Amino acid sequence: xxxxxxxxxxxxxxxxxxxxxxxxxxxxxxxxxxxRQLCEAWQWKQANGALRxxxxxxxxxxxxxxxxxxxxxxxxxxxxxxxxxxxxxxxIADKRSVRGPLASIFPLEFVQVRRTPDEPLFNSLLEQYHxxxxxxPVGEHLKYLVKANGQVIACLAWQSAPRHLKLRDRFLGWxxxxxxxxxxxxxxxxxxxxxxxxxxEHLASHILGRMAKLVPQEWKRLYAHPxxxxxxxxxxxxxxxxxxxxxxxQVIGTTAGRGHRAPTFEQTRPVKQMLGLPLHRRFRExxxx
Length: 289
Fold this sequence. Notes:
This protein is α+β, with helices and mostly antiparallel strands. It has ten helices and eleven strands. Helices cover about 35% and strands about 20% of the residues. The protein starts with a strand and ends with a helix.
């Protein structure tokens, strides 16, 4: 029997027979319940113990389309809530001018707002004031509001790192196997916004320095695994990236502007600089084991 491969996992003939037997023994199970039962049987779980049932459903669908198994009929059509998601509602922000030396606004408060009553405020501020707007983070993620004297002055979003990035993978010295095994130990800074009425010198680099300590702590608390590397992209046509470099981030290289799996070698999108920040002096060793 042919072996299939799904998301870097080889599926053997014996495993396909196991899935067939599971379906045959439990014809009453929906696709959703079937995927969860298979996750339990294979102990296919995230580091925090949550079942990888979405990943498992993708595997089952692939095997069904390949004719290896026959899934039960779809009982209900699941709505794609990400595709249907409405833009965040506008929230009236506190626009009092914040100016002066950095020390004058201390102490700063860093609040992780994912799944809290402040999350709509975070989403709205990015939608209104970030040039890219709001985008729902993918996979594991954190959302931070930074406050001074109770007033929000900045927003930062972090999410699971992209799986394939030639610049990063080359810099880390990753093999394909090491990348597949350890990409979850990286976090990607997708948004960094200092609100337009805030003018405080050195604020941005200070916030990034604080984030380098807070993000791995919160990530480990929520997702039960460490983070050894942070990364981001910036558009050099818009930004110089001075605050990142001042916070010890390194410029890894420049993209070709073609995007992932581009069909041609022509530039189709803006060229970006990639920056990274090691969080441990042995980061290459830890990310290669």
